[in-house]
Amino acid sequence: MLVALCPFTACFAQQQSLRQQLDSLSREIRLHPQSTDLRLKKAAVNIELGQWDYAVEEYGEVLKLDAQNLAALFFRAYCYTNLRRYPLALQDYQALLRLQPRHLEARLGLAMVCEKMGRSMDALDHYNLLVQQYPDSAVCYAARAAYETSRRQYDVALYDWDEAISRRPLNADYVVSKVDVLLTLRRNDEARQTLEEAVKRGIPTGMFHEWFEKTR
Question: 94: burial class by Cβ within 10 Å (0-12, 13-18, 19+)?
Answer without folding.
Answer: middle
